[in-house]
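PROTEIN DESIGN WORKSHEET
SECTION A - STRUCTURE
LENGTH: 412
TOKENS:
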């Protein structure tokens, strides 16, 4: 007998990322030679958790109230404005009246609110077949389900044809569509959509929603500020949101935790964009209710750090310079890994930039076991293994592909 409610009996956190990451962390403590390529955080070349000096300075400038007092449930007007300035950048004036913001605990809070308020019980969200596994848990917690679209076609590009097929299937079966796109620096593959793919996706959404079918584009942009293409390119893609009709809405899941390397502070934002004031008013009402019921309010410290950095020209300039250096570090690591992969014949899924690279294999669990014996910890998932480039130094990125190739060949 159990005292749990029926739908909670089967609940078990089967995500191996946190579990295997904890094992790798403990092994690293015991033996510095262990390679921990599991957890999605940025480490420097000395394998220490990276921290932005500008963020530390901003923290030192906050008052006691700004750090420790309760914040409001949706976040302050200053926080909303700072988020808009950062996310929309040169397009701020064009979007400031077409958007609303809700403070959330990290990007996950934004995802949870969006699933809860834009899908009914039993509805399915449309997820990529290569994905961050927590999407599925959040949906289950919200009494919802999912189906998947193929992320890549045979040419290694975004499979727009399969996305459309799946969208039409959901349109017929449940009368609404919530499509999740994780871009740029997709987790776990590192793929980034091209401008042409973004244009075609927006056009597709307009076509499918033209008859009044609600379409919600949930844009998980956790890694947007680590795109090697830089601010201008990623914000130019955001400008395409303005083309959407009133039957569609874009909701962005922004992770301040990732952008500012404040992983444990858990600060994020749910950002809605629509040309319809009614859509935006509905967003405010429903998501404020959900936020209050789930976490009451987000961290005041995190919100005020963002406000301080965005509104102080000197701090903002310093932070952007540090962020550019972080991007360069990731680019250098990825280039090294990919060059060595090509040399040894290690195949990766299509990669552009970001924290992770993903390698297809037949026996990921066996590959994991093989590598652990070599003091290398990665993440097995489905028919792939994920390597966290953000967590390992350049010299490790260079030597890892050959060892992974040996592991795959030995376990086939």
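SECTION B - SEQUENCE
RESIDUE ASSIGNMENT:
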């Amino acid at each position: 007998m159990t005292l749990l409610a029926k739908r909670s009996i089967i609940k078990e956190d089967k995500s191996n990322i946190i579990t295997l990451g904890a094992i790798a962390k403990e092994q690293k403590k015991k033996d510095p030679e262990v390679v921990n390529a599991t957890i999605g955080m940025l480490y420097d070349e000395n394998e220490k958790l990276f921290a932005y000096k500008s963020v530390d300075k901003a923290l030192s400038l906050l008052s006691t109230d700004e750090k420790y007092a309760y914040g409001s449930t949706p976040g302050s007007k200053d926080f909303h404005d700072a988020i808009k300035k950062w996310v929309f950048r040169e397009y701020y004036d064009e979007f400031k009246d077409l958007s609303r913001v809700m403070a959330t605990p990290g990007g996950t809070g934004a995802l949870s609110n969006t699933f809860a308020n834009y899908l009914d019980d039993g509805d399915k969200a449309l997820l990529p077949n290569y994905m961050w596994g927590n999407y599925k848990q959040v949906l289950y917690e919200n009494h919802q389900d999912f189906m998947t679209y193929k992320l890549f076609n045979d040419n290694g590009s975004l499979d727009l044809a399969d996305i459309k097929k799946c969208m039409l299937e959901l349109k017929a079966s449940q009368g609404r569509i919530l499509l999740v796109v994780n871009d740029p620096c997709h987790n776990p593959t590192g793929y980034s959509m091209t401008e042409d793919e973004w244009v075609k996706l927006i056009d597709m959404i307009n076509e499918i929603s033209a008859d009044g079918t609600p379409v919600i584009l949930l844009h998980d942009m956790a890694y947007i500020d680590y795109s090697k293409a830089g601010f201008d390119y990623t914000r130019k893609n955001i400008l395409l949101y303005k083309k959407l009709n009133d039957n569609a809405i874009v909701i962005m899941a922004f992770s301040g935790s990732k952008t500012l390397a404040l992983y444990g502070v858990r600060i994020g934002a749910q950002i809605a964009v629509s040309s319809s004031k009614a859509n935006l008013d509905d967003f405010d009402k429903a998501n404020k209710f959900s936020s209050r019921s789930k976490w009451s309010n987000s961290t005041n410290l995190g919100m005020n750090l963002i406000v301080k950095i965005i509104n102080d020209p000197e701090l903002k300039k310093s932070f952007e310079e540090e962020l550019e250096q972080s991007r360069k570090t990731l680019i250098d690591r990825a280039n090294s890994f990919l060059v060595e992969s090509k040399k040894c014949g290690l195949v990766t899924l299509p990669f552009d930039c970001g924290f992770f690279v993903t390698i297809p294999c037949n026996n990921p669990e066996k590959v994991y076991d093989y590598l652990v014996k070599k003091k290398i910890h990665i993440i097995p998932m489905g028919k792939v293994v994920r390597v966290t480039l953000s967590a390992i130094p350049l010299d490790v990125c260079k030597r890892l592909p050959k060892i992974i190739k040996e592991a795959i060949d030995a376990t086939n």
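SECTION C - NOTES
The chain has 16 helices and twelve strands.
The chain has two domains: 6-52+316-411, 63-313.
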